[in-house]
Protein backbone atom coordinates (compact mmCIF):
# COMPACT_ATOMS: atom_id res chain seq x y z
CA UNK A 1 0.00 0.00 0.00
CA UNK A 2 2.80 2.43 0.94
CA UNK A 3 4.72 1.69 -2.27
CA UNK A 4 1.62 2.26 -4.41
CA UNK A 5 1.02 5.60 -2.64
CA UNK A 6 4.59 6.66 -3.29
CA UNK A 7 4.39 5.75 -7.01
CA UNK A 8 1.12 7.68 -7.32
CA UNK A 9 2.63 10.65 -5.51
CA UNK A 10 5.67 10.75 -7.81
CA UNK A 11 3.44 10.60 -10.88
CA UNK A 12 1.31 13.42 -9.55
CA UNK A 13 4.46 15.40 -8.75
CA UNK A 14 5.56 15.07 -12.37
CA UNK A 15 2.15 16.25 -13.61
CA UNK A 16 2.28 19.23 -11.25
CA UNK A 17 5.60 20.45 -12.62
CA UNK A 18 3.85 22.81 -15.04
CA UNK A 19 2.33 24.65 -12.08
CA UNK A 20 5.24 24.49 -9.65
CA UNK A 21 8.92 23.99 -10.24
CA UNK A 22 10.18 20.52 -9.23
CA UNK A 23 13.27 20.72 -7.02
CA UNK A 24 15.39 18.40 -4.91
CA UNK A 25 16.10 19.22 -1.28
CA UNK A 26 18.60 17.00 0.56
CA UNK A 27 17.72 14.10 -1.73
CA UNK A 28 13.96 14.59 -1.38
CA UNK A 29 11.71 15.49 -4.32
CA UNK A 30 9.81 18.73 -3.68
CA UNK A 31 7.68 21.46 -5.18
CA UNK A 32 8.72 25.09 -5.23
CA UNK A 33 5.95 27.66 -4.92
CA UNK A 34 7.12 31.10 -6.06
CA UNK A 35 5.39 34.43 -5.84
CA UNK A 36 8.22 36.30 -7.53
CA UNK A 37 9.08 37.76 -4.12
CA UNK A 38 9.53 34.58 -2.08
CA UNK A 39 10.09 30.90 -2.77
CA UNK A 40 8.72 28.09 -0.60
CA UNK A 41 9.75 24.43 -1.04
CA UNK A 42 7.27 21.78 0.11
CA UNK A 43 7.93 18.02 0.22
CA UNK A 44 5.01 15.80 -0.86
CA UNK A 45 6.68 13.08 1.22
CA UNK A 46 5.49 14.22 4.64
CA UNK A 47 4.39 17.72 3.66
CA UNK A 48 7.27 19.59 5.31
CA UNK A 49 8.16 23.17 4.42
CA UNK A 50 11.94 22.83 4.07
CA UNK A 51 13.08 26.06 2.44
CA UNK A 52 11.67 29.59 2.54
CA UNK A 53 13.83 32.27 0.91
CA UNK A 54 13.47 35.74 -0.57
CA UNK A 55 13.87 35.74 -4.33
CA UNK A 56 16.12 38.81 -4.30
CA UNK A 57 18.31 37.66 -1.40
CA UNK A 58 21.66 37.01 -3.04
CA UNK A 59 22.69 34.82 -0.07
CA UNK A 60 19.42 32.83 -0.19
CA UNK A 61 19.32 32.57 3.61
CA UNK A 62 16.88 29.81 4.59
CA UNK A 63 15.79 30.23 8.23
CA UNK A 64 14.17 26.78 8.39
CA UNK A 65 15.82 23.89 10.22
CA UNK A 66 17.82 21.58 7.93
CA UNK A 67 19.12 18.74 10.16
CA UNK A 68 20.44 16.73 7.22
CA UNK A 69 22.67 19.55 6.00
CA UNK A 70 23.83 20.38 9.53
CA UNK A 71 24.65 16.73 10.29
CA UNK A 72 26.61 16.43 7.05
CA UNK A 73 28.58 19.60 7.76
CA UNK A 74 29.32 18.41 11.31
CA UNK A 75 30.43 14.98 10.09
CA UNK A 76 27.50 13.31 11.87
CA UNK A 77 24.98 10.68 10.86
CA UNK A 78 21.49 12.20 10.36
CA UNK A 79 18.84 10.79 12.72
CA UNK A 80 15.77 12.96 12.16
CA UNK A 81 14.27 11.16 9.14
CA UNK A 82 11.27 13.06 7.77
CA UNK A 83 11.42 15.66 10.56
CA UNK A 84 12.87 18.87 9.15
CA UNK A 85 11.96 22.50 8.52
CA UNK A 86 8.33 23.13 9.40
CA UNK A 87 6.61 19.76 9.60
CA UNK A 88 3.19 18.70 10.84
CA UNK A 89 2.62 16.64 13.99
CA UNK A 90 -0.87 15.12 13.78
CA UNK A 91 -2.55 13.16 15.28
CA UNK A 92 0.15 12.97 17.90
CA UNK A 93 2.78 15.32 19.29
CA UNK A 94 5.85 14.00 21.02
CA UNK A 95 6.35 10.57 22.61
CA UNK A 96 3.98 7.62 22.65
CA UNK A 97 3.01 5.30 25.49
CA UNK A 98 4.39 1.76 25.77
CA UNK A 99 1.03 0.39 24.63
CA UNK A 100 0.98 2.68 21.57
CA UNK A 101 4.56 1.77 20.71
CA UNK A 102 3.74 -1.95 20.95
CA UNK A 103 0.79 -1.34 18.60
CA UNK A 104 3.05 0.27 15.98
CA UNK A 105 2.28 3.94 16.69
CA UNK A 106 5.20 6.38 16.55
CA UNK A 107 6.01 9.80 17.93
CA UNK A 108 4.69 13.01 16.35
CA UNK A 109 1.84 11.13 14.64
CA UNK A 110 1.66 9.71 11.14
CA UNK A 111 1.33 12.71 8.83
CA UNK A 112 5.00 13.72 8.64
CA UNK A 113 6.11 10.23 7.53
CA UNK A 114 3.52 9.44 4.83
CA UNK A 115 3.49 10.42 1.12
CA UNK A 116 0.87 13.11 0.50
CA UNK A 117 -1.26 12.94 -2.66
CA UNK A 118 -1.43 16.05 -4.83
CA UNK A 119 -5.13 16.52 -5.51
CA UNK A 120 -5.04 20.03 -7.01
CA UNK A 121 -2.24 22.13 -8.39
CA UNK A 122 -1.98 25.43 -10.19
CA UNK A 123 0.40 28.36 -10.29
CA UNK A 124 1.49 29.37 -6.75
CA UNK A 125 -0.92 26.91 -5.13
CA UNK A 126 -1.06 23.22 -4.23
CA UNK A 127 -3.52 21.05 -2.29
CA UNK A 128 -2.51 17.76 -0.69
CA UNK A 129 -4.59 14.99 0.84
CA UNK A 130 -3.49 11.95 2.86
CA UNK A 131 -5.24 9.22 4.82
CA UNK A 132 -3.79 8.64 8.28
CA UNK A 133 -4.63 4.94 8.56
CA UNK A 134 -3.82 4.28 12.22
CA UNK A 135 -5.94 7.11 13.61
CA UNK A 136 -8.49 6.95 10.77
CA UNK A 137 -8.31 10.60 9.83
CA UNK A 138 -8.07 12.38 6.47
CA UNK A 139 -5.76 15.38 6.28
CA UNK A 140 -6.21 18.01 3.56
CA UNK A 141 -3.75 20.91 3.32
CA UNK A 142 -3.71 23.80 0.85
CA UNK A 143 -0.69 26.10 0.52
CA UNK A 144 -1.03 29.23 -1.59
CA UNK A 145 0.94 32.36 -2.41
CA UNK A 146 -0.12 35.50 -4.26
CA UNK A 147 2.21 36.95 -6.93
CA UNK A 148 4.23 39.83 -5.53
CA UNK A 149 3.70 38.84 -1.88
CA UNK A 150 6.09 37.42 0.75
CA UNK A 151 3.32 35.58 2.57
CA UNK A 152 2.03 32.01 2.31
CA UNK A 153 -1.47 31.04 3.42
CA UNK A 154 -1.79 27.52 4.86
CA UNK A 155 -5.28 26.04 5.23
CA UNK A 156 -5.81 22.57 6.72
CA UNK A 157 -8.65 20.16 7.55
CA UNK A 158 -8.63 17.00 9.63
CA UNK A 159 -11.68 14.77 9.15
CA UNK A 160 -12.39 11.94 11.56
CA UNK A 161 -13.69 8.72 10.00
CA UNK A 162 -14.62 7.26 13.40
CA UNK A 163 -18.04 7.38 15.12
CA UNK A 164 -16.89 8.77 18.48
CA UNK A 165 -15.40 11.96 19.92
CA UNK A 166 -11.81 11.97 21.09
CA UNK A 167 -8.87 14.12 22.11
CA UNK A 168 -6.59 15.14 19.25
CA UNK A 169 -2.97 16.32 19.30
CA UNK A 170 -1.95 18.74 16.54
CA UNK A 171 1.16 20.91 16.39
CA UNK A 172 2.83 22.88 13.63
CA UNK A 173 6.47 22.01 14.30
CA UNK A 174 7.78 25.27 12.84
CA UNK A 175 11.53 25.13 13.44
CA UNK A 176 14.38 27.51 12.70
CA UNK A 177 17.98 26.33 12.49
CA UNK A 178 21.61 27.31 12.09
CA UNK A 179 23.10 29.37 10.53
CA UNK A 180 20.04 31.66 10.69
CA UNK A 181 19.85 30.58 14.34
CA UNK A 182 23.09 31.66 16.00
CA UNK A 183 24.20 32.09 19.60
CA UNK A 184 23.17 35.46 21.01
CA UNK A 185 22.18 36.77 17.57
CA UNK A 186 18.65 35.41 17.07
CA UNK A 187 15.60 36.70 18.93
CA UNK A 188 12.06 35.34 19.15
CA UNK A 189 8.92 37.32 20.00
CA UNK A 190 5.31 36.27 20.48
CA UNK A 191 1.89 37.51 21.57
CA UNK A 192 1.92 35.81 24.94
CA UNK A 193 2.99 36.39 28.51
CA UNK A 194 1.85 33.32 30.51
CA UNK A 195 4.43 30.56 30.18
CA UNK A 196 5.70 27.50 32.01
CA UNK A 197 8.92 25.53 31.87
CA UNK A 198 8.18 21.98 30.80
CA UNK A 199 7.86 19.53 33.71
CA UNK A 200 10.63 16.95 33.54
CA UNK A 201 10.97 15.67 37.11
CA UNK A 202 14.42 14.28 37.83
CA UNK A 203 15.48 13.69 34.21
CA UNK A 204 17.40 16.95 33.90
CA UNK A 205 20.02 16.18 31.21
CA UNK A 206 21.19 19.36 29.42
CA UNK A 207 18.26 21.40 30.78
CA UNK A 208 19.08 24.63 32.59
CA UNK A 209 15.51 25.82 33.19
CA UNK A 210 13.65 24.62 36.31
CA UNK A 211 10.94 21.96 35.99
CA UNK A 212 7.30 23.03 35.80
CA UNK A 213 7.74 26.65 36.88
CA UNK A 214 5.31 29.36 35.75
CA UNK A 215 6.85 32.60 34.52
CA UNK A 216 6.05 35.75 32.57
CA UNK A 217 7.60 35.76 29.10
CA UNK A 218 10.45 36.26 28.45
CA UNK A 219 12.29 36.22 31.80
CA UNK A 220 13.00 32.79 33.36
CA UNK A 221 14.50 32.40 36.84
CA UNK A 222 17.20 29.71 36.88
CA UNK A 223 19.78 28.52 39.39
CA UNK A 224 22.36 30.62 37.55
CA UNK A 225 20.24 33.79 37.53
CA UNK A 226 17.47 35.29 35.40
CA UNK A 227 17.54 34.38 31.70
CA UNK A 228 15.92 36.26 28.82
CA UNK A 229 14.31 33.38 26.90
CA UNK A 230 13.63 35.44 23.75
CA UNK A 231 17.35 35.59 22.95
CA UNK A 232 19.31 32.55 21.77
CA UNK A 233 21.82 31.69 24.53
CA UNK A 234 25.40 32.92 24.43
CA UNK A 235 26.86 29.42 24.72
CA UNK A 236 25.76 25.96 23.67
CA UNK A 237 25.41 22.60 25.44
CA UNK A 238 21.83 23.21 26.62
CA UNK A 239 18.31 22.10 25.71
CA UNK A 240 15.13 23.52 27.24
CA UNK A 241 11.37 23.42 26.61
CA UNK A 242 8.73 25.96 27.57
CA UNK A 243 4.99 26.09 26.89
CA UNK A 244 3.08 29.35 26.50
CA UNK A 245 -0.57 30.33 26.21
CA UNK A 246 -1.28 32.82 23.45
CA UNK A 247 -3.02 36.02 24.53
CA UNK A 248 -6.72 35.19 25.12
CA UNK A 249 -7.64 38.79 24.26
CA UNK A 250 -6.37 38.54 20.69
CA UNK A 251 -8.06 37.05 17.64
CA UNK A 252 -4.78 36.62 15.74
CA UNK A 253 -1.56 35.57 17.46
CA UNK A 254 2.02 35.91 16.27
CA UNK A 255 5.39 34.30 16.74
CA UNK A 256 8.47 35.67 14.96
CA UNK A 257 12.23 35.09 14.78
CA UNK A 258 14.81 37.67 13.71
CA UNK A 259 18.41 37.01 12.73
CA UNK A 260 20.20 40.15 13.91
CA UNK A 261 23.13 39.15 11.67
CA UNK A 262 21.14 38.69 8.46
CA UNK A 263 18.47 41.34 9.25
CA UNK A 264 15.95 38.68 8.25
CA UNK A 265 12.63 37.92 9.92
CA UNK A 266 10.43 34.83 9.61
CA UNK A 267 7.05 34.76 11.29
CA UNK A 268 3.59 33.33 11.63
CA UNK A 269 0.21 34.95 12.14
CA UNK A 270 -2.23 32.44 13.61
CA UNK A 271 -5.95 32.26 14.38
CA UNK A 272 -6.10 31.82 18.15
CA UNK A 273 -9.20 29.62 17.97
CA UNK A 274 -7.13 27.14 15.95
CA UNK A 275 -3.87 27.11 17.89
CA UNK A 276 -4.04 28.50 21.46
CA UNK A 277 -0.60 27.26 22.57
CA UNK A 278 3.05 27.40 21.53
CA UNK A 279 5.90 25.18 22.73
CA UNK A 280 9.51 26.31 22.39
CA UNK A 281 12.08 23.56 21.82
CA UNK A 282 15.39 25.34 22.42
CA UNK A 283 18.09 22.91 21.35
CA UNK A 284 21.77 23.94 21.39
CA UNK A 285 24.02 20.85 21.28
CA UNK A 286 27.78 21.37 21.44
CA UNK A 287 28.17 20.17 17.82
CA UNK A 288 26.48 23.43 16.71
CA UNK A 289 23.48 21.80 15.02
CA UNK A 290 21.21 24.37 16.66
CA UNK A 291 17.41 24.30 16.38
CA UNK A 292 14.57 26.28 17.94
CA UNK A 293 11.06 24.92 17.49
CA UNK A 294 8.30 27.55 17.47
CA UNK A 295 5.72 24.79 17.75
CA UNK A 296 2.27 26.37 17.80
CA UNK A 297 -0.59 23.98 18.33
CA UNK A 298 -3.60 22.74 20.26
CA UNK A 299 -1.63 21.72 23.37
CA UNK A 300 1.26 23.27 25.34
CA UNK A 301 3.79 20.41 25.18
CA UNK A 302 4.93 17.40 23.19
CA UNK A 303 3.47 14.76 25.50
CA UNK A 304 1.21 11.72 25.41
CA UNK A 305 -2.54 12.29 25.58
CA UNK A 306 -2.58 10.96 29.12
CA UNK A 307 0.04 13.50 30.20
CA UNK A 308 -1.64 16.36 28.34
CA UNK A 309 -5.02 15.65 29.96
CA UNK A 310 -3.40 15.58 33.41
CA UNK A 311 -2.25 19.21 32.89
CA UNK A 312 -5.78 20.55 32.32
CA UNK A 313 -6.49 23.31 33.13
CA UNK A 314 -3.28 25.27 32.59
CA UNK A 315 -3.56 29.01 33.11
CA UNK A 316 -7.31 28.38 33.35
CA UNK A 317 -7.55 26.97 29.83
CA UNK A 318 -7.90 23.44 28.36
CA UNK A 319 -4.67 21.82 27.24
CA UNK A 320 -6.32 19.82 24.47
CA UNK A 321 -8.92 19.97 21.72
CA UNK A 322 -11.72 17.57 20.81
CA UNK A 323 -12.09 15.96 17.41
CA UNK A 324 -15.83 15.22 17.19
CA UNK A 325 -17.20 12.03 15.63
CA UNK A 326 -17.37 12.01 11.83
CA UNK A 327 -16.47 15.73 11.79
CA UNK A 328 -13.79 18.13 10.57
CA UNK A 329 -11.50 20.53 12.38
CA UNK A 330 -10.14 23.35 10.17
CA UNK A 331 -7.22 25.72 10.71
CA UNK A 332 -5.48 28.66 8.99
CA UNK A 333 -2.24 30.54 9.44
CA UNK A 334 0.05 32.88 7.52
CA UNK A 335 3.77 32.31 7.13
CA UNK A 336 5.90 35.29 6.11
CA UNK A 337 9.50 36.28 5.44
CA UNK A 338 11.04 39.73 5.15
CA UNK A 339 14.18 41.77 5.51
CA UNK A 340 14.10 44.27 8.40
CA UNK A 341 16.00 47.55 8.74
CA UNK A 342 18.98 48.13 11.04
CA UNK A 343 17.82 48.50 14.64
CA UNK A 344 14.73 46.36 14.10
CA UNK A 345 15.55 43.92 16.91
CA UNK A 346 12.13 43.23 18.45
CA UNK A 347 8.54 42.60 17.37
CA UNK A 348 5.81 44.09 19.55
CA UNK A 349 2.86 43.36 17.26
CA UNK A 350 1.87 41.71 14.01
CA UNK A 351 -1.58 42.46 12.63
CA UNK A 352 -3.66 42.55 9.48
CA UNK A 353 -4.85 45.94 8.25
CA UNK A 354 -6.74 46.33 4.96
CA UNK A 355 -4.89 43.61 3.07
CA UNK A 356 -1.55 44.43 4.68
CA UNK A 357 0.53 42.62 7.28
CA UNK A 358 1.97 45.16 9.71
CA UNK A 359 5.03 44.13 11.77
CA UNK A 360 5.78 46.71 14.46
CA UNK A 361 8.74 47.54 16.69
CA UNK A 362 7.34 50.25 18.97
CA UNK A 363 10.48 51.07 20.95
CA UNK A 364 12.46 51.76 17.79
CA UNK A 365 9.42 53.36 16.15
CA UNK A 366 9.86 51.13 13.13
CA UNK A 367 7.46 49.00 11.14
CA UNK A 368 7.53 46.70 8.15
CA UNK A 369 4.42 46.38 5.98
CA UNK A 370 3.84 43.43 3.65
CA UNK A 371 1.05 42.81 1.18
CA UNK A 372 -1.22 40.03 2.49
CA UNK A 373 -4.32 40.05 0.34
CA UNK A 374 -5.81 36.73 1.47
CA UNK A 375 -5.83 37.32 5.22
CA UNK A 376 -7.26 34.84 7.75
CA UNK A 377 -11.01 35.18 7.31
Give descriptors for this structure:
Beta-galactosidase, Chain A, domain 5; mainly beta; 7-stranded antiparallel sheet; 377 residues; 8-stranded antiparallel sheet; single chain
Q: How would you sum up this structure, described in words?
A:
This protein is mainly β. The chain has one domain: Beta-galactosidase, Chain A, domain 5, CATH 2.70.98. The chain is 9% helix and 44% strand. It has 4 helices and 26 strands. Strands 6-7-8-9-23-19-18-12 form an 8-stranded antiparallel beta sheet. Strands 5-11-21-20-17-13-14 form a 7-stranded antiparallel beta sheet, with no helix packed on it. A hairpin with a 6-residue loop joins strand 3 and strand 4 (49-54). The longest helix is centred in the N-terminal third of the chain and has 14 residues, at 2-15.
Please give the alpha-carbon distance between the first and last residues. Answer: 38 Å
Task: Tell me the fraction of residues in β-strands, as a range.
Answer: 35-45%
By DSSP, the count of extended strands is: 26
Assembly state of the chains shown: single chain
Level-1 CATH class name: Mainly Beta
**Unreliably modeled segments:** 5-18
CATH topology term: Beta-galactosidase, Chain A, domain 5
Under the CATH scheme, which architecture would be assigned? Distorted Sandwich
Please identify the structural class as seen in this structure. mainly beta
- Helical content band: under 10%
Give the overall pLDDT as a whole number.
Answer: 93
Query: What is the count of DSSP helices, taking H or I runs of 4+ residues?
Result: 4
| Morphology call | globular
Order of helices and strands: HEEEEHEHEEEEEEEEEEEEEEEEHEEEEE
Widest β-sheet, arrangement of strands:
6-7-8-9-23-19-18-12
| Count of discrete domains | 1
The radius of gyration over CA amounts to 20 Å
Described by strand count, sense and barrel closure, the largest sheet is: 8 strands, antiparallel
Amino acid sequence: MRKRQLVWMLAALSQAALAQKSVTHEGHEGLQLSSGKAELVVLPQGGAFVSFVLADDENHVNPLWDPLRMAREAGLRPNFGASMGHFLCVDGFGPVTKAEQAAGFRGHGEAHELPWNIVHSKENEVTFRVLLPKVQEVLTRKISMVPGEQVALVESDIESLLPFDRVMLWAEHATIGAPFLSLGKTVVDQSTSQCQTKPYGGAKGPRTFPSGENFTWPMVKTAGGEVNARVAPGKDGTMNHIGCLFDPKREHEFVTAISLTDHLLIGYLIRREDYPWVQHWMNYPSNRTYSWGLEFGMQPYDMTKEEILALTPMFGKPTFRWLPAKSKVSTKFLMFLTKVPDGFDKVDDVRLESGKLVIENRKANKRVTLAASRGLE
